[in-house]
Amino acid sequence: MTDETNEDDALDLAADTLHGDLRDAVLTHIRSMETPWSKMSEQAQGDKIYAINNACERLVRRAVAIVASGGHTPMFGRIAKFTVKDEIKAELVAPSSVGNIEMIAENIGQPAIIIFASPEAFMGQKAEAKPDKDQPALPGTDDDGESDPETPAVNPSSVTEEA
To answer: pLDDT tens digit string along 124-163?
Structure first.
């Protein structure tokens, strides 16, 4: 099996407990935080975002495989080429692992269902996760230090002194 498959299997996701499995995987990252988010440096927050993002990507890939396989052992691969005559003949390319070799050897000539399920269709997000800045933005600027168009410009010469 590939390293990715081993990592996915280690997540131990199951169709009937998928929601809880996903929640528990994310909670594992949150519980491992020794410092509260607001006290973490921007770099530490970025590292945690990176770790959670990678975990979520693996979780989505595994979840799609679970749902698409309907409880059967999936084999990840791709169609490399095909020919069409009286029937379609396709060449499957998959990682060379003992599990995949055994699965193919045990099922030669057997009916198979091919499901094209790309996890990429589920990798969207509402917005990118960003760490909090170590230093707050200056008044009159946005989070990137650019002038904030919402803040009205004040001409210092127009301000009157009250004594």
So the answer is: 777 788 888 888 778 877 666 676 566 555 565 665 665 4
Neighbours of 44 (CB within 10 A): 16
Q: Rounded to two decimals, what is the model's pTM?
A: 0.53
* Three-class HEC string of the chain: CCHHHHHHHHCCCCHHHHHHHHHHHHHHHHHCCCCCHHHCCHHHHHHHHHHHHHHHHHHHHHHHHHHHHCCCCCCCCEEEEEEECCCEEEEEECCCCHHHHHHHHHCCCCCCCCCCCCHHHHCCCCCCCCCCCCCCCCCCECCCCCECCCCCCCCHHHCCCCC
The two three-digit tokens of residue 26, written as one number: 């994310």
